[in-house]
Write a structure and sequence with these properties.
Length: about 150
Amino acid sequence: ASVSEPVQKCCTENIQPFLTSILEELMGPISSGFTEVRLLFDKEVNEIIQDFQKTNDMTRLKENVDQLMTLPFNSVKMEPCYLKVNLLQELLQDLKSRFKVYHIDSVIQRTQNFMQELMENAVYTFEQLFSPSHQADSAKVATTIEKVKLRVLK
């Protein structure tokens, strides 16, 4: 009871007024990172479509889809996504000194893990909705891939 009032006053005066701006500031890099994941998935699927339109080769299409499944674990391709979130390092340094926010690296690592998980979910869903072996009409394959991609991105 004796601590409650001073703590509430401290939170109301020193923390609560800043929460909205802090959240907005943190969401910038996080949103950028997740947008980059979306763009990477879109780019990779578009490359599969373009390759299939050039070659019309179902075996190669299957290989490309299999390769897409490894995308979440391809650190080189995922790196631009992760770099967007690294901007949190600078933003969180200011918060660390003002609000005693610790474990900055943990926040960044968890965000990057969520990004990888999102990509895993996207490629898994893509694979489930589109199976090259079930495509009888190769003329419609590119259109089907595009529709599946749009469905996954939704």
